[in-house]
Amino acid sequence: MTEMKNHQNVNAGRGFQVAALLAAMLLSACGGGGGNPGAVTGGAGGGTATPGGTGTTVPAATPTVAVAFTSSTGASSNNLTGATPLTVKATVLDKDKKPVQNAIVTFATDNKLATFSPSAGTALTDANGVATVTMRAASLAAGGAAAVTASTTVADAIVTGTGNYAVGATALSFGTLSAKEPKLQAYGTTVLSVDLLSGSAKYTDQQVNVNFSSACITAGKATVSSTVATNGGTASTVYRDKGCANTDIVTASSDSVAKSVTTTLDIAAPAAASVQFVSAAPVNQAIVIRGQGGNGRTETATLVYKVVDNTGAPLAGKQVNFTPSTNLVTVNKASDTTDATGSVSTTVNSGTTPTSFRVLATLPGTATAANPTDISTLSDSIVVTNGLPVQSAFSIGTDTFNVEGLTINTSGTTPAAHITVSLGDANGNLVPDGTPIVFQTNVGAVGTSSSGGCNTVNGSCTVDFRAQEPRTPTPGLPKTACNAVIPDITRAGMATICASTTDGSQTLAARTAVFLSGSTAVFYMNGSKLSGAEVDLGHVGSGETRSFQLQISDVNQNPMPAGSRVEITSMLNGNAAGVSPATVPNIAPHNASGADDATGATIAGNQGSIHTFRIASTQPTDCKNATQASFNVTVTTPSGAVTSIPFKLSFTCP
What pLDDT, on a 0 to 100 scale, did the predictor assign at position 451? Predict the structure, then answer.
């Protein structure tokens, strides 16, 4: 029975072989396949079944990455130290075990133990499929074991390989940190040196960075090359003093050495070479008299000085004494000590007397045999002046007293007049800039749109006066500091303008008057008003010149506008010898005696201007016949308004 089964199995196997062979022959005859006759491609297992075989599956081949280490001599080694870097090689083969060229290989490891060069840890494979990087110990003190992982991509598949290595720590120590000159004069130099040891011998296998530090170096009062590489096992640097003026402890340290070393330098303090005046505040170097301060004004000056050595470097901790040049001021701090920047300051208060002063700054104890006086310097001059305004130094004025404004308005761009106020203090000095002035008027408008007044510059300020409504003054209105003392004069066609300020305790005020003159002239001769009819001047000999005077005013017996022309026109049978003055002058209000009173408080009578006219004959000699001259006196205002009055004069022959 067993033999029968075996026979059946053999027959079955032969049958399978025959069937497979026939299938292969048919496939070949049809042009298909191309494979090895008699071989059958495996199914899901990826293996190959051979005729008569047992059906065992063989794994498919895959790409590989192999990691290896070599020393600087090319010998195989995976022992890394600070003195012996390793070359890491990654060999990349494809599934057919052929080298893969130009594959990017990334190397990775524990960066506390080792680092790569290039630092990116990447390299391309060469024609042999080998990518190479250099690996160094992360530090001389690093020790332990780790693995390098090399990764790449072959045929869209990520392939990795690893290799293990060991890191041996290099034990280093410092020798003595020495200074060639441990005691330095100010701004001196010395050389600092320290040996790097491995055991008892200098370590020279590779350069090691050594750091030098100290408190004075950190503060910027000394300099060194802070990081120095060893040369022949020794690190050296030059220490340069920049005003340390102290005992400085210098430390040498390195990441490769567990314990730092120190040395001490004794550095002399630099000597003061000068004290310099730096600044005064206020910046205009002027303060006001005591008790006269206010907004924007001060009674105290702050003076700043600086102490430096012979290199110009600032010196801290130096005593400076202050002495004023006059006892009319008070120094509030007679002595002080310089700060870290070498600066020192004091303040000075004004007295009650105008003066100028300087303050002497002295460095006590700096006298020498060669220079027997202490080092010192003077401040710039400081002025004590500019007190508050006083009534006796309060002035107000106008550039034009008689403006054409009774019926004509003036605009902001062509004001009728400019009103100027000037202020002084009790000592006759100009008041400080910025002293505010307020203006008010009972006729027209005055001041500025921003404040109604102005602030002084160099002791004075100016505002515009406009001719406009109201043109009729109302008694007592507006209420001003001026009419609180003396009532305004409510004369028709006259504005009373009041300017006021304060000295902090009382109001100061001054006023001026401005005529709003009419545009139609009214003529007076010998105190009598002319009606406008022709005026007969009588007769004179043909060889004589007739002179006469007219007073010309407006309807309110105020002056005609300043600048109005007065002339003789339409002359017949006569010669106009001249008019004086030919224009209406700037006329301030005046009293009955004719004395000017710009305030208008004592104004009286006709304020018109007086003009002299001279008329001559056309035949001053060899007169043949008596003649009669006729002419007009004409007044033309700045606005072009014209008023004329006719005259006649007879000339007789001898």
Answer: 76
CA torsion angle for 268, 273, 274, 278 (degrees, to 10)?
A: -60
pLDDT in tens, 403-444: 999 999 987 667 889 999 999 988 888 888 888 999 999 999
For residue 646, the one-letter residue type is P
13 in any annotated domain: no
172 neighbors 140 (Cβ within 8 angstroms): yes
Same-domain check for residues 541 and 622: yes
Q: How many domains does the chain have?
A: 5
Tell me the residue type at 463: V
332-337 CB contacts, 8 Å cutoff, 24+ apart? 332/300
pLDDT for res 33: 38
* CATH number of the domain bearing residue 400: 2.60.40.10
Contact between 584 and 564 (Cβ < 8 Å): yes
Alpha-carbon distance of 278 to 339, in angstroms, equals 14
* Rounded Cα gap, residues 121 and 100, in angstroms: 19
pLDDT under 50: residue ranges of the chain: 1-53
Cβ atoms < 10 Å from Cβ of 521: 27
Q: What is the pLDDT of residue 383?
A: 82
Q: Which residues contact 612 (CB under 8 A, 6 or more apart)?
A: 547, 548, 549, 579, 580
Q: Which of 200, 201, 198, 207 is nearest to 232 (CA)?
A: 207
Q: How far apart are CA 291 and CA 434, in angstroms?
A: 18
437 within a domain of the structure (yes/no): yes
Report pLDDT digits (tens) over 182-221: 999 999 999 999 999 988 899 887 888 999 999 999 999 9
Assess if residue 500 is contained within a domain. Answer: yes
Token look-up 């330098």 returns 265
* Global confidence as pTM: 0.54
**Residue 463: domain span:** 391-517
Tokens of 138: 């992360």
Burial class (CB in 10 A: 0-12, 13-18, 19+), 47: middle
- Supply the pLDDT for residue 433: 83
Claim to verify: residue 159 and residue 213 sit in the same structural domain: no
Q: What residues are paired with 502 via a beta bridge?
A: 507
Residue 100 is inside which H or E element, if any?
none
Identify whether the C-beta of residue 63 lies closer than 8 Å to the C-beta of residue 154: yes
Conformation bin of residue 570: beta by default, left when phi > 0, alpha when psi is -120 to 50: left
